[in-house]
Amino acid sequence: MIDLKKKFSKRFDFVLFTTVALLCLYGIIMVMSATASLNRPRLIKVQIIATILGLITIIILSLVDYKILGNFYIPIYIFCNLLLLAVLIFGTGDKDWGARSWLSIGGFAFQPAELAKIAVIISVAKMIDKNKKTINQPFVLLKVLLFAGVPIGLIAIQPDFGTAVVFVFFVFVMLFAAGLKLRYFGYAIIIGIISLPILWFSFDGYQRKRILNFLDPEHDTSDSGYQAMQAKIAVGSGKLHGRGLFKGVQTQFGYIPEKHTDLIFAVIGEELGLIGGLILFALYFLMLYRLIKIAKETKDTFGSLMVVGIAAMLGIHIWENIGMTIGLMPITGIPLPFISYGGTFLLVNMICIGIALSVGMKKEGLKF
């Protein structure tokens, strides 16, 4: 028993766990400030409860053999697609956010696309692992892409293009880590460029407006470009030290839309300034570094690819969310990991960290 405890303390990544816990604490504080003027204490309670449940889930999952997930990758994949199909039939959200992305069961609402991130990472990692020796054969690659493409397509037609892009990104990173030849990525870029006109005409009106506002920030600052403009004003006004928690003018007087979810980095920029932003960047860098370290040190292809997918998924979320807040990316409904309000999103991210820690625990054959 003592020997087991020593192995656990030696192989459990306390740095990663502590970093995630600090990010969650940072998120609770910022959600508290962002919602102070909304008089909705329930939002804070949900975030705190989700954080506690998430931390417990991380510890439990770290003790479970991640290979069990690989044994059930087909049922996981089927269940994920059934949920996404259910969204298209019974889902809600199109009136408020322009996309039918939510399911409500017994008064509990959640986004199946968030759960699908875990399912796709697990199932695609296992599919690549089963075909790792022949992944560069066109037929095998096409089989993997079609396998990954089904849930991505179901998300795209909600329509939730921003989330679909997240899936495409982490799947491509997983394929790159698996040794896919660079020429295939070149082909993908060429196909992407050729299909841009088709993609443009497939967008809804609000999606086109967001891209036009990104290309020309002064295009429509009173309507479709309002979010982006107010976010940049908030971040710029924070300067070095920020205005102080609960003292942001743009934040507390309601100029920033979705300030506790998609645009929470604008709250950080205004109230905590550049220093607050750099602290957040440091925590994210440390988290991603520890995930990449686990992936590199893991000899099992399935486990390594899962952690690569998790790191890529979190990384693209961070880049897109902060990028859209400061004008480097178009506005999309992509939240900030561990910081933005959202019980489902937070728990999904915590489950991903638990899976990564499980991979790290088993990389040298530790058994329980």
TrEMBL record:
Keywords: Cell membrane, Cell shape, Cell wall biogenesis/degradation, Glycosyltransferase, Membrane, Peptidoglycan synthesis, Transferase, Transmembrane, Transmembrane helix
One MF annotation (Gene Ontology) recorded for this entry: lipid-linked peptidoglycan transporter activity
Cellular component annotations (GO), alphabetically ordered: cell division site; plasma membrane
Membrane-topology annotation of the record: Multi-pass membrane protein
Superkingdom of the organism of origin: Bacteria
Pfam families recorded: FTSW_RODA_SPOVE
Protein function: Peptidoglycan polymerase that is essential for cell wall elongation.
Family the UniProt entry places it in: Belongs to the SEDS family. MrdB/RodA subfamily.
Record protein name field: Peptidoglycan glycosyltransferase RodA
Organism encoding this protein: Anaerosalibacter bizertensis
Gene from which this protein is expressed: rodA
